[in-house]
């Protein structure tokens, strides 16, 4: 992803360096919210037992299914990763007064998604286990778009539309868990754990369409506002546990050094079979003299998941234009003869 971001920046620098009449720049800010589609909303890391290798990535929900609950319930948490403030910069070039092409970069200041799960665990954590989950994502995405102006070149008011291909080039999805236990390992003593995981993505492609209107303040500066819709699911690459602190009997221990790579890192793939590094097809863990153990020094493999970044958004911003007519006038201006 870092190489991809570097490539994109280099391309943008070349575009600016060879700027021709018709070039323009946009700077904008706004707010983004989840689209109407509510499937595969925000996801979270779900621990299972004392070894993270038994953990899974599941949709974020709110629930209380403990036997002590006065009313058991489960409910979806629909806030997705597309919620938050957005900032964008783009450079474009109009090949004629009505059609142009644009390259842009966008980042989001995320609003965190939260969920609470309460349940009973009769093996490790005891009754009324509480897991408070917080998840968010940050990163940079690029877009290549075609833009269409629906007005005469001399108009003060400029309606326009744009269609873009969206390509995330860098980003991380973070899951933080605060786990509270009242009867850890049936000792009648409380315990707590703080866990943080970071998920890196692989190449993903989405689409974005927008409609807006601009107003020409001067020949060089335009103010605009627009609404946009985006369809994007970002595919998971790897998830790594970066923090796992366990507090019991007044003492806090860093558990990460005690775990193998198989327990700490999950690699997401599109296919699992008997050769995959997983226990799904009969491979065992740490069985002496076994020839069918998983590789503890390699990541655990699971089927790939995708996080929902589909969104509606609105933006306001400024366009700075290099006026084609002014440049032509300067180019065609004849020198005034000087007489002795």
Structural topology:
Blueprint: H1 2-17, E1 23-34, E2 43-46, E3 56-59, E4 61-64, E5 73-76, E6 84-94, E7 99-110, E8 113-121, E9 126-149, E10 157-181, E11 191-201, E12 206-216, E13 221-231, E14 233-248, E15 251-254, H2 261-264, E16 265-269, E17 300-303, E18 306-308, E19 311-321, H3 324-332
Parallel strand pairs: 4-8, 16-17
Antiparallel strand pairs: 1-6, 1-19, 2-3, 4-5, 6-7, 7-9, 8-9, 9-10, 10-11, 10-12, 11-14, 12-13, 13-19, 14-15, 14-16, 14-18
Name some characteristics of this structure.
340 residues, two-stranded antiparallel sheet, mainly beta, 9% helix, eight-stranded antiparallel β-barrel
Quaternary state of the chains: single chain
By secondary-structure content and strand pairing, the structural class works out as: mainly beta
Beta-strand content estimate: over 45%
The N- and C-terminal alpha carbons lie at a distance of 65 Å
What radius of gyration results from the CA coordinates? 27 Å
What's the tally of helices? 3
So what's the overall shape?
A: elongated
Run of helices and strands: HEEEEEEEEEEEEEEEHEEEEH
Strand arrangement across the biggest beta sheet: 1-6-7-9-10-12-13-19
Main sheet properties:
8 strands, antiparallel, barrel
| Number of E-state strands | 19
Average predicted confidence as pLDDT: 85
Structure commentary:
Helix content is 9%, strand content 54%. The chain has helices at 2-17, 261-264, 324-332, and strands at 23-34, 43-46, 56-59, 61-64, 73-76, 84-94, 99-110, 113-121, 126-149, 157-181, 191-201, 206-216, 221-231, 233-248, 251-254, 265-269, 300-303, 306-308, 311-321. The strands form two sheets. It has an eight-stranded antiparallel β-barrel. It has a two-stranded antiparallel sheet with strand order 2-3. The protein is elongated, with a radius of gyration of 27 Å. The termini are far apart.
